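On clarity, I found the account of how folds are encoded harder to follow than it need be. What matters is that the chain and its backbone geometry are given together, residue for residue. For the editor and my fellow referees, an illustration may be useful. For illustration, here is how one protein appears when written out as sequence plus structure tokens:

___
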Amino acid sequence: MIVEVCANSLESALVAERAGADRIELCSELAVGGLTPSYGLLKAVKEQVSIPVHVLIRPRSGDFTYSADELNIMLADIRLCVELGFDGIVSGVLLNDFSLDVAQTQKLKTAACNLKFTFHRAFDWITNPSEALDQLEAMQVDYILSSGQQKSAPLGIDFLSKLKSKTKSIQIMPGSGVNADNVVSFKNKGFTAVHLSGTAMIQTLAQEPAITMNSERFLSDNYIAITQLENIKAVVNKVK
């Protein structure tokens, strides 16, 4: 069974390799479901990690429906990963009705060339997963990362098993909430790969700062933060 570790830093990737993981999914910002890692992190991991690394391509938090500019950024990031010699890409695009955006996902898959391609947990939002499975198989996607459309993969194991029974070529990879206490249940169900972060929150400061830099109002699945023209113009007009 392949054990894929979602690593959010160089340190996490090195720990995963030392622990015997088979593969890394490299990202940043686990709190929002993962974002594309920086060039510096990509370069450091490529230089220091020897096991296969698949890179998450997701330009922002929130939904999985992207503008033309965002898609161009994603394509540029994929091309960079191809140039740097990574082993796989983790990405995907939905339409705003929670169906698979076949055309845009195909563009990402094509840009990935011969790298492995995982359609990520956007799959858990799709309202017709059987149709999406057929569409992703037609694209020759390698993996679908899913919690079984539940809050965690253990809760979604029955759905995941049904999905696995329908697939002809894609490996269904359970992810979210996978740990040492439940991983054998996935192995016993015949899954050949699992995905987990294996993280713990490590304290770095002796005391809390006087003010927080975290903003809960920016955490949303169905809203994204966009600079507003009138807000900036109002400030510029006051001082220019």
Summary: Residues 2-201 form a domain with the TIM Barrel fold (CATH 3.20.20.380). Strands lie at 2-7, 23-26, 53-56, 88-91, 116-119, 143-146, 171-174, 193-196. The chain has a mean pLDDT of 97.
